[in-house]
Amino acid sequence: MKSLPAWGLAFPILVAAGCVAGPDYQRPSATTIPPAYGGATNEWRIGQPQAHLPKGPWWQIFRDDDLNLLEEAAEAASQELKAAAARFDLARAVLGIARAGLMPNLRISAAASRIRDSFNRPQDGKGAGHSETYSSFSVPLELGYEVDLWGRVRRAMEAASARSQADAADLESVKLTIQADLAIHYFRLRSLDAEARLLSSTMETFQKALALTRNRRAGGVATDLDVSQAETVLRTTEAQLPAIALERVKLAHAIAVLAGQNPTTFRLPEKTLEPAPPSIPAGVPSELLQRRPDIAAAERRMAEANAGIGVARTAFFPALRLMGTAGLQSVDAGTLFNWPSRLWAVGPSLTVPLFDGGRNRAGLQQAKAVYDERVAQYRQSVLIAFSEVEDHLAAQQYLTAEHEAQTGALESARRTLAIATNRYHAGLVTYLEVATAQSAALDRERATVQLRGQQLVAAVALVKSVGGSWENPGQTAR
């Protein structure tokens, strides 16, 4: 019988090596996509995840130099960000390990041993009765290569690549979260600074009013009740300052941690709430899936789980390895490197699974379950993203309306205070009416300041919810 040529044996192996087990990845639909933002005209669009694209220093849209310096410090020194970067480095190393599976492995070793054979060992098909003691020296060079018949290694590399991309998106997500949290804490702190300054200036006015009331009492124009009411208004205002100071200390410590600095030595001088909320254009980015790193990470983890199904399926098929050994072996170290001491061996190793008690089937079921979980998590991330964007867009709209109404109420409260003060000086009313007007005016002043802080915080939250500034990096204010 004529023997099959070597290329005839290799051909089916090469054909099989082109096969890849498991389904090729196709991104599932995210969820039911609404036609537009609630109450807006621009349409939602689905895009490919592009969280790796640089977002630029988006915080510069607020035009605050102190915030700019803090954000730069956080990017350079945040320990949480460094931990996320280390996780990304780990993922890249895992990808390198998976990629190495496509290449043959080559290693060399050296061994020396002293051996004594058993006296009772069988010899040349005969009975026992002879024992030998000898040395053995060897220097083998071993080559091994797994023929990726069913794509196990390629699917493993595909999974590792998707995992690395997911961790890259996680790094961007951590970075964006740190940046946004720092900006939110910063604007809350500045809002407290504005409140503290307002209370301090109001206290000066109340002190003058108390002194005037005492003089009027000494002149017999005012009563002790008037003096007591004026003093109550002053002391009530003073009592609010320590609570603001405590909250400011806590926020300053939180900012220090985010910026990677020691809270004990960190100092942030007081400053008024200067920046106005940035204007939100009508075309806020609607390509949500292109920008949000958490959605990009969830999508890449779906791809990783999909590749995991392919890896699990390859366990049902034969595994072929090509092995080769070449080297030197001798019973005497002096002749180890002589030409007659050479040895070699080459040949394939084929492993065929026959019975594993259901292990491989359970592994495939596990891989499919992981994929189904990743799909659900991806869709949930998209739903949450829709909710967050809608919430923060609504916050922009309603906080603006509230601020306008509150400004009108403040003007009215100031007029009421002026009228009450004039009526009191004319002797038409008691100081109770002035004290009531003072408290109402102060409440409106504080509410207006707080609303400005809430508007800035809501703007930061909107930036975070859309995955970065709605401006192009090159257009960011400087």
Can you walk through the features of this model?
With 478 residues, the protein is an alpha+beta fold. The chain has one domain (23-103, 149-324, 360-475): Outer membrane efflux proteins (OEP) (Up-down Bundle), CATH 1.20.1600. Helix content is 58%, strand content 10%. The chain is built from nine helices and five strands, in the order αααβββααααββαα. Strands 1, 2, 3, 4 and 5 form a five-stranded antiparallel sheet that branches. α4 (152-218) runs antiparallel to α9, α5 runs parallel beside α9 (431-465) and α7 packs antiparallel against α8. The longest helix has 67 residues, at 152-218. The protein starts with 5 loop residues before the first helix and ends in a 13-residue tail after the last helix. The model is unreliable at 1-17 and 473-478 (pLDDT under 50).
Q: Write down the Rg.
A: 38 Å
Q: Could you estimate the helical fraction of the residues in percent?
A: 55-70%
At CATH level 3, the topology is Outer membrane efflux proteins (OEP)
Mean pLDDT: 82
What shape does the CA trace take? elongated
* DSSP strand content: 5-15%
How many structurally independent domains?
1
Task: Please write the CATH class name.
Answer: Mainly Alpha
How far apart the termini lie comes to 84 Å
Category from helices, strands and their pairing: alpha+beta
Total helices: the number is: 9
Beta strand count: 5
